[in-house]
Amino acid sequence: xxxxxxxxxxxxxxxxxxxxxxxxxxxxxxxxxxxxxxxxxxxxxxxxxxxxxxxxxxxxxxxxxxxxxxxxxxxxxxxxxxxxxxxxxxxxxxxxxxxxxxxxxxxxxxxxxxxxxxxxxxxxxxxxxxxxxxxxxxxxxxxxxxxxxxxxxxxxxxxxxxxxxxxxxxxxxxxxxxxxxxxxxxxxxxxxxxxxxxxxxxxxxxxxxxxxxxxxxxxxxxxxxxxxxxxxxxxxxxxxxxxxxxxxxxxxxxxxxxxxxxxxxxxxxxxxxxxxxxxxxxxxxxxxxxxxxxxxxxxxxxxxxxxxxxxxxxx
Length: 315
Fold this sequence. Notes:
This protein is of the alpha+beta class. It folds into 2 domains: 22-193, Jelly Rolls (Sandwich), CATH 2.60.120; 225-310, Homeodomain-like (Arc Repressor Mutant, subunit A, Orthogonal Bundle), CATH 1.10.10. It has helices at residues 108-118, 135-148, 168-187, 200-215, 222-228, 233-244, 248-266, 271-277, 283-294, 298-311, and strands at residues 22-27, 33-39, 44-49, 54-58, 61-65, 69-73, 79-83, 91-96, 122-123, 127-128, 192-193. The strands form 3 sheets. A 5-stranded antiparallel β-sheet has the order 1-8-3-6-10, covered by helices on one side. The chain has a 4-stranded antiparallel β-sheet with strand order 2-7-4-5, with no helix packed on it. Strand 4 (54-58) and strand 5 (61-65) form a beta hairpin. The radius of gyration is 21 Å and the shape is globular.
């Protein structure tokens, strides 16, 4: 059986479609825990949180979110989202390649704004809150952008591509909304020029997480992870825990269990094979760790997932 592809740290494929690399992702009525795992991409991302209790991490900076706000992710920034508790609120995100704006290479907007942004020499503002004068008009443009996607149901999107559109008129409205957002940010002087946007710590974390995601099926030792970033093992463990709030091996275990959930839901592989596929050589250890993280068993999780899928009424 061919297994479904599992996500990598750097998202290789385009968001949206090849013809129009722009997509909307929606997360509503969230559960406690990780919503978006650590990853990075070359596209710009705009996030709108409309309440709830979230934890957003960007390049090892931590942001607690409990009220309405907009956040901006620059190209290349490592980020993740988790929910502190179950809530009815959520977030909408648009991820897009600046190339969709169709500006000429010699256009001043491209040369002075879009190209430096793509090359990480110009940064978007980190956050906008309702007390900032640009918040409301930016939010209105963001909502028009969502509307241009046709107000599709959340379930019409896919984890890889999100909600997409191939309608020409919709694409024009989306481009228009994005340009208006950039114009509003520019008019309020919210772009920041940087001489150097390289953080060695972030690159080390990226390298470590990439190694884990590429090798989680095999035995992984602290010495292997420390060697990836050329660090002393003891110092590496302190560095990793300070960056991600857990030990390297805790992260490895969490990642393996998340992959096992994916296989339980998307394949009919027996539990023992999933155990081996996810880097556990001992079924007992796998079952203990699975129960610790999910508070259930693999078979119960699969049954509950299938029951939910079969009872879902799209109407």
